[in-house]
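Researcher: Please translate sequence to structure tokens.
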Amino acid sequence: QVQLVESGGGLVQAGGSLRLSCAASGIIFSINHMGWYRQAPGKQRELVASITSGGGTDIADSVKGRFTISRDNAKNTVYLQMNSLKPEDTAVYYCNANLNYYTIYGRRPGDYWGQGTQVTVSS
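Model: Translation complete:
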């Protein structure tokens, strides 16, 4: 099976920085795009940033210029560097990966989510 394991969340003061990591494990053939979403209390989950296998990125306007997404294809890992954090960035951050993995029946596509990591920014 495939798992996404996130790390790096926590409590930080406004203006501070955090770096989130998400590692995909399992018998993975290839990973298409990976991304970070967030969900604040009472709000819908929203895309923060995504990155393709070729390195193309899509960044939400609300975090553009402050957050950077990157990935290490050799490690099946995606990162989210968050700078100049604001209280409104407080949310649970989820990693997502669209990938192809091996089963006894052959290669299969799949879309997976991490368990979520809490980011809290105090004012």
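Researcher: Any highlights?
Model: The mean pLDDT is 96.
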